[in-house]
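[agent] plan:
  1. take the single chain provided in the ticket
  2. run structure prediction with default settings
  3. attach structure tokens to the ticket
  4. add a short note for the reviewer (M.T.)
[agent] executing step 1
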Amino acid sequence: MSGSTAPSERAFVLGLDGVPWRLIEQWSDEGELPNVARMREEGASGTLESTRPPTTPLAWPSIATGVWPDKHGIYGFQNLSSEYSHEMYTSHDLAQPALWDLLGPSHVGNVPMTYPAREIDGTMVTGMMTPSTDREFTRPPDLQDEIESRIPDYEISLDYHKYGDRLDDFEVAVDEMLAKRRELMRLQMDRADDDWQLFFFVYTAPDRFQHLIWDMDRLLEHYKQLDEILGEVIDYTDDYDADLYVVSDHGFGPIDRLVYVNRILEQEGYLFRREDDGTRGALASLGISRDAITSALNRVGITEETLVQSLPRQLVDSVAEQIPGDHALYDVDFDRTVAFVHDTGNCYINDSGRFDDGVVSPSEVPQVKADIKTALESATDADGEQLLEVFDGDELFPTDEDAPDLVVCGRETYESRSTVSDEVLGDTGVYDASHRSEGIVLCRGPSIDAGATLRGARVVDIAPTLLHGIGEPVPKNADGRVLFDAFAAKTSPATTKVERSAVAQVDAGGDVDEDFDDVEDRLKGLGYME
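[agent] step 2 finished; step 3 output follows
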């Protein structure tokens, strides 16, 4: 269907969270995924390079906006303050207009980092980071009533920690979640009718499934379900002569060991734990730790989540600081610490210009950062293999002086963690696999070149390519480029100069006063948080 001289006026983004190129390439070549094969034959395809670190909260906003985190403003799941406390990132932190702010009517479903729902021309159902379906999670609000009526027990995500030793049950639960998400997509299609310019819908199930199950037979069965969904979306976009982009925010692969980066910093003299004196010392001498308290409460039916929900967060933080444990914030002595890792691989120099109790003067930061980068890159396993990749924050995020100083990622089958452990390396526990930087991009539409190979595509290239492909201007400050290799020769997008438009930062409103404890619990269950 490629080669039309007139561009499409509509575009559909089908997000498949965490799908790696090598699996869809192999299984579509073998005939197991006929609709993926059709996308490759009738459109353009290739690998898609993720953000650094290659994680959901950074990558999906980059796909939706066409800019890196230093411009869209989201660096992880939790935003770190100058007082060493944190709060969850929300859609209010997204500073760059997303595709659904630029196009309309737009219908947005289950996209991570969209909670709370913003007022847009169209419909929105928020995704990952939504506290629960007890909150308002749709625009317009009455869409929520329709979801509750048509999709009973619709849920944003699963409590993954409950399935660590129940993988058969987990597989059933993921299948049920996938089916409900598909029904949501159909509901939004019905709502949209023919009144839409953009559809942006994400399935997070493959990412969740792969974290706990990295078994090729079971994975293939899951991917076959995704392929069926893709077939439905192909038919839908054909009905409207729309461009279709199938993208993953990152890839996936097996992991063998966890690397506790803060332990390396501690060994190298850059990080110090809080002394077990005063209340902490008394509790420690009695064998009372955060883990011990949590276990005891669980035995009598009181969960950590129940306590956190019942008490003000400030009080919880204050108490947590007094109980010995291994938390990257609660258990670090910032009066002596030079550097620490927070969230998913973000390393911060304890800069006195940035943090209230900083011990490093701003003039010393460049040298300290260089020394720490060398120390982390020098960490090896018993075979002399390097454990970590370390990236300079100034190079990754040049426009934001408050960006992380370094970004630390595990190499190959090593996964980095921020817990303050007594050992550098640890077992992966229930986790089979985790993120890789190489995801997928498949596109098909009236002006897309059949069988074309996309090379060097990055997550920030999706939005500019989509906009140009449907004849819309690209924001002047976009970091991504238009992937002209996707377009057939002599078509309008292939022969037309990219039009640029000025954009203003999004003002989404004030702080979000919400209880995110359920979200934190789900993230812990996937190994994303401590």
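[agent] step 4 note for reviewer: Residues 280-290, 303-313, 525-529 have pLDDT under 50 and may be disordered.
[agent] ticket updated
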